Request: fold
Amino acid sequence: MKTEGSEILRFATFEVNLRAGELRKHGVRIKLQEQPFHVLAILLRRPGEVVTREELRSENWSADTFVDFDNSLNTA
Reply:
């Protein structure tokens, strides 16, 4: 994965602009909802590491958020 600063991450044919919240493949923007984008960003920031479901929950949803977390994460 190539990084340019901390804003753009590249892997395979994809490019993620963290600041703009955009995912592109071969330069073409791919629509991605907010939560799936956040999950992708967390995983890309920790290459080669195991990221637990609890870590994803705590970084994506505040403690006072009531949501079917497992379903939301599976969907994301």
Summary: The longest helix spans residues 34-45.
